[in-house]
Amino acid sequence: MKAAPKMVILGAVVGALAGPAHAGNVNMPKEGNYELKFCTIGSGTTILANDKVYASHYAGSATLSTQPPGGAFDRQTAKCWGTVGIVGGKAKHLGYCDIADADGDKWLMEYQGTADGSGGTYTAVFGTGKYEGMTLKGEWKADYYPGPGPDGYAACNPNKGSYKLR
Per the structure, how many domains does the chain have? Predict the structure, then answer.
């Protein structure tokens, strides 16, 4: 047997054995407070930029993690889209994230940034499965990393808030 087929078989066996440990059965309290890191990376398109004016739209992916592990929203993933504009030193920032857990249940986050660009607030505006009817209010603080290229961005933003499942 050649090396490549052996690796495929080994990968399938490891995946079959490890899969159930990460699949489904997301259990979280019906309501509570949370703190997590929302780590995101992506890229955008700048449509105008100088010292006083900046406008961009962007898309990225993110992971959510809690310390200690196992907290509300831990190990969820997100796809995010947004716009940011700065005119006269004041930022306007609006975006949405489609967030999924290991069970495949999803919730849609709508976020807005602060005028000084230091963070923002967000709510849950829609959910499926266990997140259907969820109320959530959260806030995030900006913690940017060097971007992966001229139009790239990266951040690992601390978040906190409260939620209530239906």
Answer: 1
DSSP conformation class of 94: E
Which structural domain range is residue 98 located in? 31-164
Please state whether the predicted TM-score (pTM) of the whole model is above 0.85.
Answer: no
Residue 148 sits in a domain whose CATH number is: 2.40.350.10
Assigned domain for 124 exists: yes
Give the bridge partners for 108, in sequence order.
Answer: 98, 126
Cα-based angle 95, 69, 27 (whole degrees, multiple of 5): 80
Residues 6+ apart with CB under 8 A from 10: none
Pairwise CA distance, residues 26 & 78, whole Å: 16
Q: Using one digit for the tens of pLDDT, what is the confidence trace for 104-132?
A: 999 999 999 999 889 999 999 999 999 99
The CA angle 71-58-69, to the nearest 5 degrees, is 10
CB 73 within 8 A of CB 100: no
d(CA 100, CA 149): 27
Q: Is the pLDDT of residue 101 over 70?
A: yes
